[in-house]
């Protein structure tokens, strides 16, 4: 049986994932799954000292995203109901490969695959790509205290990591469409026509 539409919105920190996912959920009358960020008890410590707190941070995110997606399967996917999420579970590998080293990275990858390999994957991906200046402006605008001192080189590396990850996903799952949005030029919040173009494209794929 064909899986119901499972849409994931992805992109680096500050790209506008949650905003776009929420707007599309309202436009398409879909339930929206939002990742837990500010509730992570290790996030402040992580931005102060990435080396000491990266494993705890990544494990918290992984376990919470796993629980959310497991519930999503039960509530929506198994019942043939479409749903939209403001993340793809694959992002755990994007971030952990950047922050973890050696044995910790290996252990994390093992746990990731044990938890996620049998979960349904999104069958429509929206990738918001944006340059560093754009991300920094959006991060400043939303005003999260723990992001105030974010390392610019870390954020730039994430941009490159996301490009590589989307290319990898395209190879792994060639039947899954990846819609790339130029976050530097497209303002789906202020420009109604640009948002409607995105939502129309999603409707065509559902």
From TrEMBL:
Transmembrane segments: none annotated. Residues 7-205 form the Deoxynucleoside kinase domain. InterPro entries: DCK/DGK, Deoxyribonucleoside_kinase, DNK_dom, P-loop_NTPase. It comes from the Bacteria. ATP binds at residues 11-19, 138-142. Keywords: ATP-binding, Kinase, Nucleotide-binding, Transferase. GO terms for cellular component: cytoplasm. One of its GO terms (molecular function) is deoxynucleoside kinase activity. The active site is at 86 (proton acceptor). Pfam families: dNK. SUPFAM superfamilies: P-loop containing nucleoside triphosphate hydrolases. Belongs to the DCK/DGK family. This is AAA family ATPase.
């Amino acid at each position: 049986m064909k899986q119901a539409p499972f849409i994931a919105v992805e992109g680096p920190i500050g790209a506008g994932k949650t905003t776009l996912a929420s707007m599309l959920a309202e436009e398409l009358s879909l339930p929206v799954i939002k990742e837990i960020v500010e509730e992570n008890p290790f996030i402040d410590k992580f931005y102060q000292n990435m080396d000491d707190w990266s494993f705890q941070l990544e494990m918290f995110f992984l376990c919470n995203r796993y629980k959310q997606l497991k519930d999503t399967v039960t509530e929506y996917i198994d019942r043939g109901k479409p749903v939209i999420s403001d993340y793809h579970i694959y992002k755990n590998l994007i971030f952990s490969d950047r922050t973890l080293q050696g044995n910790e990275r290996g252990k994390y990858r093992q746990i990731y695959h044990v938890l996620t390999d049998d979960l349904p994957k999104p069958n429509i991906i929206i990738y918001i790509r944006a340059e560093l200046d754009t991300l920094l402006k959006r991060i400043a605008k939303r005003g999260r205290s723990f992001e105030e001192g974010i390392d610019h080189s870390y954020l730039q590396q994430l941009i490159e990591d996301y490009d590589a990850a989307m290319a990898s996903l395209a190879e792994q799952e060639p039947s899954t469409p990846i819609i790339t949005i130029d976050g530097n030029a497209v303002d789906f919040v202020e420009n109604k026509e640009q948002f409607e173009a995105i939502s129309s494209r999603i409707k065509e794929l559902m």
